[in-house]
């Protein structure tokens, strides 16, 4: 019999009450989930620093949006603290005590992975736009702001680190009140150049609307008319207090300004898409090697486009520019993107940014749809670099006994040690001079990224060697080590010269003090090569901490320089009978004291390096044809007499140096041999018979003759090349002049000279030079560099020495005119005048084609004071200029056009002054410059002088010359 358990009756409504509780708990869970997810989120391994100099109050608007992102992404400060907008930044703190208001960027914590420069506009007593320098009380309007030299040095040191790092800057980093010399350094750092123009979208252009008050004030100061603009539009303004208004519907369309990623932005950061942008921006240009990751495009009408171009502007320009080396990246954001006018909330909730990307509209859309995804991509890329650093170097070298070797001499060549053993290496090298525009030769750049970029480009040429003339800044060696860590399968090798000072006391190389200082420099260089040097700051020489051992990539030390004949003669006279005998080098009984000094210096180097580091490297003496041991028949004066001829009066002979018992790496000669100097290259009859596949080649004839007497050791042509530019300092009968060649002719000539070196048994050649150096000079231009100490500030396109570079450093022609003259009627409808550090540019627009068979165009140039010079264009033309002219440009045909000078201003006659008053003679003379002096052979056969027509103007595009 079954028993049934009596069920307890359910309490009415209890199950029904439980369900809402579950729903409530679930809803609470959903509400709390973003916070919970944020709490359990692992902080980023990266450390981030914000730098903001524009904090006029406690609202920190200029980095508020950035701080929200960092907190939301759990990216921490170098102290591993969460970001708090009002306190975790460096820069200006207006609410702090006076002594604590400024927190400098330097020193930058070693843990810092990313630096973001949010704003450097600064804090002011009153608004003033670009015009603000003084207030009415004649006190500075600026309280604090602008990028400083201290900032630049701190940032450069940060980028010079071996650690993988990232630097970001945005709108106004380059702009006022940052001075121009700081701007130039920032341009190099960010591979970006500011045009001087900035802009912003304005919803209400009226005088009562949103137009900046300083622009209204500037308009009022420059115009008697009231402010004419209403509605919306874009205002562009520059550092010259010029402004341009593009009104909606008239000058710009509905899209106004569109931000869009480029293909490079998509490839490098995985970002794509576009969005309307309605905030502040500046107009920048990329420098060589930079990548444009995004652009702005102004939606201009034809009328708007004409307005832009009248000011030298285009409707599309970069919004993000990337500069990089192997282990660091710089980004320039040309917009005010870290700014937020309002406090952003919910930074500690996961998923807010993703949701807002789809929900945001209008003003906020750019921040959520573009800026945050962009920053996430940059953070991800930076984290990837930090997680996968570049592997350390694994040098390959060999040992002979206790001596390490990477290179040695062998027959006529140098050899390098590889995993397959000793291999011949024909040198295809490039000389690196380091005088940047505006700098002298001892202004060594402290910029690893710059050196790395150069080395990368040199490697891409196919070169296997670089040569430097003296000890450089430590950052060169850091960059060199980095390059070879990355390109370990195809490294660059180094020839390191050790430069003795010029002008020894008494012209005596063996002067005790001079030699002691040279030996000290030898020690500095060897220590630096082995990454073991700390050199105190010193004038005219490199200094610093040298920590990278690059000894396994050095294939030669070059000892000495182009020795001056009078120094060699005086050393030999003062030290008659002096000789030397060492473990590594000895000299013959016939050796001169100068040759003994070179052997002694080399022996000191080799003994020091082997004793301290256990290494030997091949070593060379440096020499040039001026001191060769050949007898040059044409090196005589115009009477055929060999009297104190500079280029054939004495010699230095490597054959007089003998290798000693301790020598393992070997000795070679390093020679500077050009096709156009000394004059015997052009004049000695013995070189006329030399032929190659292209015909007569006197340069090859000299190489052959020199190698026939250079019998003991390998010879490297350590300096050779062809100058481009527009002037000529020496004439070559084979066309290889000292200047005036095109870049194509330069390349073809270099290849031909390399082929001659290889054919005649040389160990290779090193091209002079990597880049144009404005600090260079030559004999045809040096007398006119007045004042001499300012010649580095401009590029003399006439001077061939300033135009040897494979890499051009040239001024950029301004897009905007300096002066503009327009006529509705007449032959000349427009004349635009521009100037830069290289050229004065005159652009004419004519109403018809000129007929040079019937007419001339005369252009007078007044380069001195207005009340001096020539007023009359021509004796036969009764038209006077408004001020005194020094030059007259005569355009009358493609082959005959000239620039003429008044007689007292004709520099080719060594006259440099204008008239003391104005004249009306109309006399202008051609300029004819001596470039090859008159000579004679031993039988008195005359060698006539050669003059260059310095007045002739060439027709065509500048790229041809």
Describe the protein in words:
It is a single chain. The mean pLDDT is 92. Helix content is 24%, strand content 25%. The protein has 17 helices and 48 strands. The protein has 961 residues and is of the alpha/beta class. A hairpin with a 4-residue loop joins strand 37 (828-835) and strand 38. The strands form 14 sheets. A ten-stranded mixed sheet has the order 3-2-1-4-7-16-15-14-11-12, with helices on both faces. An eight-stranded parallel β-barrel has the order 22-23-24-27-29-31-34-35. Strands 10-9-8-13 form a four-stranded antiparallel sheet, sandwiched between helices.
Outline of the structure:
By secondary structure, this protein is of the alpha/beta class.
Name the features.
alpha/beta; single chain; 10-stranded mixed β-sheet; 25% strand; 48 strands; 8-stranded parallel β-barrel; globular; 961 residues
Structural class: alpha/beta
Give the overall shape, derived from the CA principal axes: globular
Separation of termini? Answer: 121 Å
Q: Please work out how many helical segments DSSP would assign.
A: 17
Tell me the layout of helices and strands.
Layout lengths: L13 H27 L7 E5 L8 H12 L17 E3 L9 E2 L10 E6 L3 E2 L17 E3 L4 H11 L5 E6 L9 H11 L1 E11 L10 H10 L10 E6 L4 E5 L4 E10 L1 H7 L4 E3 L4 E6 L4 E10 L1 H9 L5 E9 L3 E6 L18 H8 L5 H23 L10 E3 L2 E3 L1 E4 L2 E6 L2 E5 L1 E6 L15 H14 L3 E4 L5 H13 L6 E6 L13 H18 L3 E3 L8 E3 L7 E6 L5 H10 L10 E3 L5 H21 L5 E5 L33 E3 L7 E6 L7 H4 L7 E2 L2 E2 L1 H12 L5 E6 L22 H17 L4 E4 L51 E4 L5 E8 L4 E7 L10 E5 L7 E6 L2 E9 L1 E5 L6 E4 L16 E2 L8 E5 L2 E2 L5 E2 L2 E4 L12
Parallel strand pairs: 1-2, 1-4, 4-7, 7-16, 22-23, 22-35, 23-24, 24-27, 27-29, 29-31, 31-34, 34-35, 40-44
Antiparallel strand pairs: 2-3, 5-6, 8-9, 8-13, 9-10, 11-12, 11-14, 14-15, 15-16, 17-18, 19-20, 20-21, 25-26, 28-30, 32-33, 36-37, 37-38, 39-42, 40-41, 42-43, 45-48, 46-47
């Amino acid at each position: 019999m079954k028993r049934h358990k009596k069920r307890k009756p359910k309490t009415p409504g209890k199950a029904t009450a439980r369900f809402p509780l579950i729903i409530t708990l679930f809803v609470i869970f959903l509400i709390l989930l973003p916070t919970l997810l944020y709490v359990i989120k692992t902080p980023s391994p990266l450390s981030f620093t914000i730098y903001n100099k524009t904090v006029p109050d406690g609202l920190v608007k200029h980095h508020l949006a950035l701080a929200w992102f960092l907190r939301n992404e759990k990216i921490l400060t170098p102290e591993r603290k969460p970001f708090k907008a009002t306190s975790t930044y460096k820069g200006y703190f207006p609410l702090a005590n006076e002594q604590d208001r400024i927190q400098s960027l330097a020193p930058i914590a070693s843990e810092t992975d990313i630096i973001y420069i949010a704003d450097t506009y600064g804090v002011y007593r009153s608004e003033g736009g670009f015009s603000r320098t003084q207030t009415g009380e004649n006190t500075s309007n600026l309280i604090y702001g602008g990028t400083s030299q201290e900032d630049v040095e701190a940032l450069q040191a940060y980028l010079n680190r071996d650690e993988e790092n990232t630097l970001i800057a945005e709108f106004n980093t380059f702009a006022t009140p940052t001075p121009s010399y700081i701007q130039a350094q920032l341009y190099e750092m960010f591979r970006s150049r500011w045009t001087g123009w900035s802009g912003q979208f304005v919803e209400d252009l009226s005088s009562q609307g949103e137009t900046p008050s300083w622009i209204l004030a500037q308009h009022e100061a420059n115009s008697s008319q009231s402010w004419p603009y209403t509605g919306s539009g874009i205002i562009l303004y520059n550092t010259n207090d010029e402004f341009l208004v593009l009104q909606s519907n008239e000058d710009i369309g509905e899209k106004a300004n569109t931000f869009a990623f480029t293909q490079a932005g998509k490839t490098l950061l995985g970002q794509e898409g576009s969005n309307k942008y309605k905030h502040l921006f500046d107009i920048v240009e990329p420098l060589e090697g930079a990548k444009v990751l995004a652009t702005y495009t102004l939606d201009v009408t034809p009328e708007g486009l004409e307005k832009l171009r009248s000011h030298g502007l285009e409707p599309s320009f970069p919004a993000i520019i990337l500069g990089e080396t192997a282990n660091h990246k710089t980004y320039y954001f040309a917009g005010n993107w870290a700014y937020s006018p309002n406090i952003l909330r919910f930074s500690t909730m996961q998923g807010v940014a993703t949701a807002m990307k789809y929900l945001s509209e209008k003003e906020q859309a750019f921040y959520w749809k573009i800026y945050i995804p962009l920053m996430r991509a940059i953070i991800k890329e930076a984290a990837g670099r930090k997680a996968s650093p570049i592997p350390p170097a694994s040098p390959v070298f060999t040992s002979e006994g206790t001596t390490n070797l990477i290179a040695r001499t062998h027959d006529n060549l140098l050899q390098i040690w590889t995993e397959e053993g000793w291999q011949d290496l024909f040198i295809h090298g490039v000389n690196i001079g380091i005088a940047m525009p505006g700098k002298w030769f001892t202004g060594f750049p402290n910029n690893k990224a710059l050196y790395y970029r150069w080395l990368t480009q040199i490697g891409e040429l196919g070169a296997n060697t670089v040569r430097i003339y003296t000890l450089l800044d430590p950052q060169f060696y850091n960059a060199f080590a980095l390059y070879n860590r990355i390109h370990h399968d195809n490294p660059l090798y180094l020839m390191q010269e050790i430069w003795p000072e010029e002008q020894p006391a008494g012209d005596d190389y063996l002067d005790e003090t001079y030699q002691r200082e040279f030996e000290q420099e030898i020690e500095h260089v060897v220590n630096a090569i082995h990454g073991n040097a700390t050199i105190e700051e010193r004038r005219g020489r490199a200094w610093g901490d040298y920590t990278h051992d690059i000894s396994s990539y050095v294939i030669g030390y070059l000892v000495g320089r182009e020795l001056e004949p009078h120094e060699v003669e005086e050393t030999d006279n003062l030290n008659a009978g002096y000789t030397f005998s060492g473990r590594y080098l000895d000299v013959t009984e016939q050796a001169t004291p100068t040759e003994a000094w070179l052997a002694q210096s080399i022996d000191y180097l080799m003994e020091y390096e082997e004793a301290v580091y256990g290494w030997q490297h091949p070593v060379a003496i440096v020499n040039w044809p001026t001191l060769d041991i050949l007898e040059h028949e044409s090196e005589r004066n115009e009477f055929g007499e060999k009297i104190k001829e500079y280029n054939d009066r004495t010699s230095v002979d490597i054959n007089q140096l003998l290798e000693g018992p301790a020598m393992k790496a070997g000795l070679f000669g390093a020679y500077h041999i050009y096709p156009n100097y000394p004059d015997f290259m052009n004049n000695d009859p013995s070189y006329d018979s030399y032929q190659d596949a292209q015909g007569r080649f006197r340069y090859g004839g000299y190489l052959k003759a020199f190698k026939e007497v250079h019998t003991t050791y390998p010879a490297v042509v350590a300096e050779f090349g062809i100058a481009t530019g527009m002037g000529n300092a020496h004439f070559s009968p084979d066309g290889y002049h000292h200047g005036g060649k095109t870049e194509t002719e330069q390349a073809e000539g270099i290849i031909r000279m390399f082929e001659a070196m290889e054919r005649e048994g040389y160990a290779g050649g090193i091209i002079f030079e990597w880049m144009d150096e404005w600090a260079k000079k030559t004999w045809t231009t040096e007398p006119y560099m007045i004042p001499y100490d300012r010649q580095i500030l401009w590029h003399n396109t006439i001077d061939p020495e300033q135009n040897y570079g494979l890499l051009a450093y040239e001024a950029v022609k301004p897009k905007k005119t300096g002066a503009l003259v327009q006529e509705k009627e007449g032959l000349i409808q427009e004349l635009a005048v521009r100037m830069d550090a290289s050229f004065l540019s005159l652009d004419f627009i004519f109403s018809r084609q000129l007929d040079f068979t019937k007419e001339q165009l005369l252009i007078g140039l007044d380069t001195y004071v207005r009340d001096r010079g020539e007023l009359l264009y021509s004796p036969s033309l009764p038209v006077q200029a408004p001020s005194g002219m020094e030059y007259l440009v005569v355009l009358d045909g493609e082959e005959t056009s000239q620039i003429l000078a008044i007689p007292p201003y004709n520099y080719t006659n060594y006259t440099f002054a204008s008239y003391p008053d104005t004249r009306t003679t109309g006399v202008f003379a051609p300029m004819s410059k001596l470039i090859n002096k008159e000579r004679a052979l031993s039988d008195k056969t005359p060698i006539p002088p050669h003059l260059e027509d310095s007045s002739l103007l060439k027709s065509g595009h500048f790229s041809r010359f």
